[in-house]
Each structure stands twice: as structure tokens, then as C-alpha cells.
Amino acid sequence: MIGCGYLGAVHAASMAQLGHEVVGVDVDEPKIAMLAAGRTPFFEPGFEELLAESLASGRLRFTTDFGDAAGARVHFVCVGTPQKRGEYAADLRYVESAVESLIGVLAAGELVVGKSTVPVGTAARLAELVGDKVPGAMLAWNPEFLREGFAVQDTVHPDRLVYGLPDENADTAHALLDEVYATIVAAETPKVVTDYATAEMVKTAANSFLATKISFINAMAELCEATGADVKQLADAIGHDDRIGRKFLNAGLGFGGGCLPKDIRAFMARAGELGADQALTFLREVDNINMRRRIRMVELAREVLDGSLLGKRVAVLGAAFKPESDDIRDSPALNVAAQLQLQGATVVLTDPAAIENCRKHWPQIDYADTAEEAARGADAVLLLTEWRQFRELDPVAFGKIVRQKRVLDGRNALDRDVWEAAGWSYRALGRRHAS
Ligand code: UDX
């Protein structure tokens, strides 16, 4: 497994669990030392147990020595493809350097399997490079669809397998992948066997669709705000239609994280390079709608705080880009918290998992260990990441801690009636409010 970040580490431990001999390789020494000692560099439910079991089985080890990848029949490339600084395009330097390093240890008959999310066309280019340098070695593209918070489950029980295979030796590559995923294949998991370009596009198309679904309902939220309609009921009602479905129709602060935002931007950039930019101009609007939600949340806070943020004490519940994660990459919650702080509010932020990560980036914000501590003396409480412990807060007891019983539900996750019955003024994006 080349690259032991989120994807690679979970994939490595999962493959060991499925019975394979796995070696995880990464250039990041502290990360490798942590993983080798059974400690997880990131928060992911179930991963620590899986890592411990896989290490104890003797089938999993971690190293910084690329030479240890020699002799493997299958080499997975799991490195990151972040957004380039100042551009929409994906930065492929880690993928390229992983493949170049692999070429040094690769032998004929071995299979390189790309899992990283890459711009369409990358696999064909890498396959040519691999084929030139190591005749008889093969390359396949096998995108992953793991969600943070469900990474282990999504790896061991994926909802589909996608194999992008070479024109030559397709059967050999196919058989090797089936051998790797034997238990998953035996469970009759749907499998799509295709070419490189389609396999690469499956991932970006899926993430673009999800982002579009979220921005669609958030655009409806904007209209609901203009008309007095209720976006939550609207989502429930349209979601009853099987063709639409209720999932990913939760209006609120919108999407963030290490995948959706950068993937839709890289997709647009790639479409531009291919002369097909018109096909994806709608994604620019998807991105715009998403970013507008953050601005609207800050405006709503200002409105609720009698027109000014200056000197107001604001409790922010949640910083991670979604619950069950300590990931703050492009987190809408942290973005709003930081804007409030920069515009003069005193923000006290709490999150069950992400505080340590936040502290490094925003030392000027105050951090609290619990929601109660964060809310002490607050003029307003903002729920920005819908962790279960926040959704289950008792508004009666919580009301005794704050200075003003004003709650802004950025994720439409609280029971408005219960909070209002406890005397709170409740505001949310895309919802009617009692005035
Ligand atoms: C996503 C894809 O779901 C996954 O298949 C892919 O492999 C990687 O990218 P992830 O980034 O872990 O996974 O998060 P996801 O669960 O998709 O949520 C993304 C963002 O959308 C979060 O910020 C979440 O809060 C937001 N979201 C999700 C909404 O705002 N509304 C919804 O209805 C659903």
C-alpha cells in the first residue's frame, strides 16, 4: 500500500483483515511509527480495533522503506491528490512520485492499482510509463468511495467495485483484483468492469452528483427563506419520491471536507483542458451555492445578535466538516466560527474530536471541552456540526447556562418544537421562524 493516509491506512488494515500479507509504505516517518505502534493518526470509528487486530495477525506491517514493496503481487497507490494552490486543478505530484518510486521495485506480472482520485486521462499516461519501464507489469484503476466516519465499513463492505482495466492483459489484471477482493466478490457486490477513463470518471461523477444534490436543496433553502416555506418539510416531501430519495438532501451549512470541494473543482479544471468546460459550468454554481451558505450563516448570527457581532459571546458546537470525524479540511463549521471571530465576536468552540486540529490553525479562538462549557454566558449558540451529543442536548438544562436563549441550527438537526418549548428562540437556514 503506497501512501498511508486516510485511504491507504484503512485499506491496508482492511486488506490484512481479508487475509492478505500487507506492507504499508509512506514517506512520513512519524505517521508510520504511529501506525506500526497501533496508534491511529486520525479519528475514525472502528479503525483502531481493526489496526490492532491486523497488526496482531502478523499480516500487516508499516515501513518508510520503498524497497519493502518489492515482491508484492499487487501495489496499491493510495496517495493524496489535493487541490493545487491558487488553481482548481488536482496536484498529481504525490501520485507521480509514488509510481516513479514503484517502478524501481516493480517486476513483470505485478499489478499497480491506482485508488487515488485523479483527473481522467491520468491512468492511461501512468500505464504507458509503467509499461515502458517495466515490460510485463500492469496497471489498473480501482477508485474507492469511502466516507469518513464509515471508512472501515465502506472498505470491507463496499456498495460496488469498479475495475478500470488495461486493453492488454485485462483478464490477468481482472483475476488478480478478484483475488484481492475475493470475500467482497463472493458477497455478490456489484462490479463494474470498464476502461481507465470510465473508472476515473466514476469517482468524480459520483462526488459531483452528491455535491449537486446538497447544493440543490441548499438553493431551495434560499428560496424557502425568501418565501417563508420550510426546507426540511420540502426535502421530506420530495424525498418520498424513490427517483429522488431523501439521502443527501439535508439543507444547512453545506459540504466541506477533503473530497467533495476539491473533486468538483478538479473535475471542472480537467473538463476545461479537454475543451468540454461547458459540460461542467453548473458545478461552478454548485460551488457558489455551497459557499454562500457560510456567508448566510454569519449574517444570520449577526441578525440574531441585534445587528452586531462586536463583543458578543458566541458558543459554536462543532468544527469538523461532519460528525464522527476530526477532519477540518474546508470545514464549513470552522469557516463560520473563524469569520465570526474575525468580525469581532468572542467565539468559544467545542467539538468532540477536532479541537486539537483546530487549535493549530486558529489559536486565537477559545476552545472548550464540552458544549456546556462553551455555552456558559453565551449570547447565542450555533450548532454547526451535527454530532449526536449536540443533537441530544437537553434545551431546558442548557438554557440555564447561557446568557440569551438563542440557538442557530446550521445543520437543521435539532427538534425545533422542543427547543422553542424550552423558551429558546430557534433559527435555521431555510426554515420559518417565530418572530
Ligand atoms: C465523500 C463521498 O461521500 C465519498 O463517497 C467519497 O469517497 C469521498 O467524499 P466524505 O468527504 O467523507 O465522503 O463526506 P460525505 O459524507 O459525503 O459528506 C460531505 C459533506 O457534505 C459534509 O460536510 C456533510 O456535512 C455535507 N452534507 C452531507 C450535507 O451538507 N448535507 C447532506 O445531506 C449530506
What does the model show?
The chain has helices at residues 6-17, 29-36, 47-56, 93-103, 122-133, 151-156, 170-180, 182-186, 196-227, 231-239, 260-273, 281-304, 332-342, 355-361, 371-375, 388-391, 395-399, 416-421, and strands at residues 22-25, 60-63, 74-77, 111-114, 138-141, 161-164, 191-194, 313-317, 346-350, 366-367, 380-383, 406-409, 425-428. The chain has 435 residues and is α/β, with parallel strands linked by helices. It has 3 domains: 6-194, 3-Layer(aba) Sandwich (Rossmann fold), CATH 3.40.50; 203-287, Orthogonal Bundle (N-(1-d-carboxylethyl)-l-norvaline Dehydrogenase, domain 2); 293-428, NAD(P)-binding Rossmann-like Domain (Rossmann fold). The strands form 4 sheets. A 6-stranded parallel sheet has the order 10-9-8-11-12-13. It has a 3-stranded parallel sheet with strand order 3-4-5, sandwiched between helices. The protein has a two-stranded parallel sheet with strand order 1-2. Helix 12 (281-304) crosses helix 13 (332-342). The mean pLDDT is 97. The structure holds uridine-5'-diphosphate-xylopyranose. Residues 145-148, 207, 210, 214, 248-250, 252, 254-257, 259-260, 321-322 line the site of uridine-5'-diphosphate-xylopyranose.
